[in-house]
Design goal:
Phosphorylase Kinase, domain 1; Aminoglycoside 3'-phosphotransferase, Chain: A, domain 2; single chain; about 300 residues; 2 domains; 10 strands; alpha+beta
């Protein structure tokens, strides 16, 4: 569609991002928070993002996101920022030609190593503006839930005593924080045929790299063998040979924390989002996974393992 035929919100944003230039707009059916578009300006494609409504309740800081998007581009792992519309919060990014990844595509052989390479590139790049802490974020989300009287999955509060135990275990021998994405759904990776790019820095911040590894392994549905493959590829064979059990234990506790936090995120989205998506089902799926891990036979061993020297 032409800019003149597009809904007013995106049309006005595009006219401010690319003033006086001919453009066409095509919606992209992706994303669980925002509206995304492919915008061609005088024959050149760009990715344009319009922020979703009420994302302050989800703890999205748009200034932090923009700063970190630029930092990721400097690290050569994310697309560059082309233009920004401060009024709407929209921005235009360079268009990355490639396939949007999925859980089935990440089941292909060798993908843990490709992920590890992309993450090392991001983590070695410029520091992000703010820090990210899923324990603190989960506490914030729970306050939002309580203030708005939102429903959350059964049994959530009964398991919250596990959170400080996880936090204490991870803090015994903390790893240096690095600039992390923190929300690595398969669709936040793009494959240009040569390497992976990482997009969508809404929840980015400096964090323990084992959260990044645990989160992506959890979202991609990696089994134990592929979790270990990812961890070994990221830290390298020498480090993994020496510290593998402790690093894997950290990853698995971080996988729990990823689900603990994103369960509440999804419960909030179920109440506030206008996007046609089963956020409540998402919340229940993640909580079932987290509670099963907390109640499972390996949880105490992970606490002990993560607390050992790495």
């Amino acid at each position: 569609m032409t800019t003149g035929d597009a809904p007013p919100s995106i049309a006005s944003a595009v006219s401010r991002l690319f003033p006086g230039r001919d453009s066409s707009i095509e919606p992209i059916a992706a994303g669980l928070t925002n509206q995304n578009f492919r915008v061609e300006v005088e024959g050149r494609p760009f990715f344009v993002r319009l922020p979703g409504a009420s994302t302050d309740l989800l703890a999205v800081d748009r200034a932090n996101e923009l700063h970190n998007t630029r930092a990721a581009a400097e690290a050569d792992v994310g697309p560059g920022v082309v233009a920004v519309d401060p009024g709407s919060g929209a921005f235009a990014l360079e268009w990355i030609e490639g396939r949007t990844m999925s859980n089935p595509s990440f089941a292909e052989p060798g993908t843990p190593g490709r992920i590890a390479e992309a993450l090392r590139r991001l983590h070695a790049g410029p520091r992000f503006r703010d820090d990210f802490d899923m324990v603190r974020l989960s506490a914030y989300y729970l306050r939002v839930v309580d203030e708005r009287h939102l429903r959350i999955p059964d049994g959530y509060r009964a398991h919250t005593a596990a959170i400080p135990r996880i936090e204490a275990s991870l803090a015994t021998h903390p790893l240096p924080t690095v600039p992390c994405h923190n929300d690595l759904l398969a669709e936040n990776y793009l494959d240009d045929g040569a390497r992976l790019w990482i997009v969508d820095y809404e929840y980015s911040g400096n964090n323990d790299p084992t959260f990044e590894l645990g989160n992506t392994a959890q979202e991609l549905g990696f089994d134990a063998a592929r979790q270990e493959e990812l961890c070994a590829a990221y830290f390298g064979p020498g480090r993994f040979a020496r510290d593998g059990p402790a690093l894997i234990a950290r990853m698995r506790l971080q996988m729990i924390m990823s689900d603990v936090g994103w369960t509440l995120w999804a419960a909030i989205q179920a109440a506030i989002s206008s996007i046609d998506y089963d956020f409540w089902g998402w919340a229940e799926e993640r909580w079932a996974r987290a509670s099963a891990a907390i109640d499972g036979p390996d949880f105490e061993g992970w606490l002990a393992g993560a607390a050992s020297a790495t």
